[in-house]
Amino acid sequence: MRFKKKKRQTRTSPPSESLRTETMDIGTAESLHYDFNIVKAATNDFSEENKLGRGFGTVYKGKLRDGKQIAVKRLARDFGQGDQEFKNEVLLVAKLQHRNLVQLIGFSIEASERLLIYEYMPNASLDQFIFDPSKCTILDWEKRYNIIKGIAKGLLYLHEDSRLKIIHRDMKASNVLLDAQMTPKIADFGMARLFKAEETQGDTSRIVGTYGYMAPEYAMHGQFSVKSDVFSYGVLLLEMVTGQKNQRFQNGESIEDFLSFAWKSWKNGTTANIIDPILKTGSGSLRDIIRSVHIGLLCVQENVVNRPTMASVVLMLNSFSITLPLPKEPAFFMPSNIDPEMPLLHEYNSSSGSSSLEKSKISKSRSRSSQYSINEVSISDFIPR
């Protein structure tokens, strides 16, 4: 796929729906291309006041001449894989259409500039609600459960329902955006991996993702599959139920590992102790909330085979008559002193286990919980969105 630099245009309206098909050649999609100066003006020259956040690029709020609000993702010029991430995300997102995926409106290329133009999400990202002491009260159980189901449907579409099989590889709360009706939309496909229909898994020497959400087989060996996304989804589901970040669980005076404590609480019949207190005082059924914890624990099991597919997860979330299997103890591999929201980007040699940038030791303990330790990893200095 080649990007041919387009002549400057004066288009300000959204691209035609007829161009957003799965057979579209992104290189000839003239109406997806926006003139750089138009986007620059829409964001007030990428001003600080319009900055929405940072991830693998800075995101700005913008307003086109016709009044349409947009979100513009400006990839960092010094990011080594910037061009490839840009082309990957454009190719994937332009071909995907689902109510639980963020909509790509267009793109712009100008010299070293790479811009992605999305629909604007007025309620920002999910993490800004569930981890905020004041905003979290807005999300009662009904709203949270609808978000939980919406994210699951979006992932199911990526894994099975579109013509392409796509693995996101960085599913987390900050990569779920909320529209005016609090409908969840999965964002940031820059690290997604495209598969042919017959492929089910792969491996890579370039590990990208976020610590606390990363499946152990991916963090340790670079092996990923749709079940890697299932693991990340399980972590996110448990965060939504508990209202706490996945690095650790605040249990009174003590702090415990997030996944381990959730599993022990479920096993001991004390699941109610880990539920967000706000949900306990609402109208949500405690039985249904505990069932959601059960589903989350099934998703984070260490053995890939034991994790359900997203199709099964969607079915379990929508049918309370289905008997759930018993979850085994979840994988636990993240050191407690590492920020779970810290993006991970390093390369390793599959034979020696050494990073091509720095030595990276990833060892597995003999304990039942299969604890992995990560030392001397090369971390890219990005601020999560």
From TrEMBL:
This is Protein kinase domain-containing protein. GO terms for biological process: response to abscisic acid. GO terms for molecular function: ATP binding; protein serine/threonine kinase activity. It is a single-pass membrane protein. It comes from Mikania micrantha (bitter vine). SMART domains: S_TKc. PANTHER family: CYSTEINE-RICH RECEPTOR-LIKE PROTEIN KINASE 29, RECEPTOR-LIKE SERINE/THREONINE-PROTEIN KINASE SD1-8. Residues 1-20, 349-373 are annotated as: Disordered. It is found in: Membrane. Residues 1-10 have a biased composition (Basic residues).
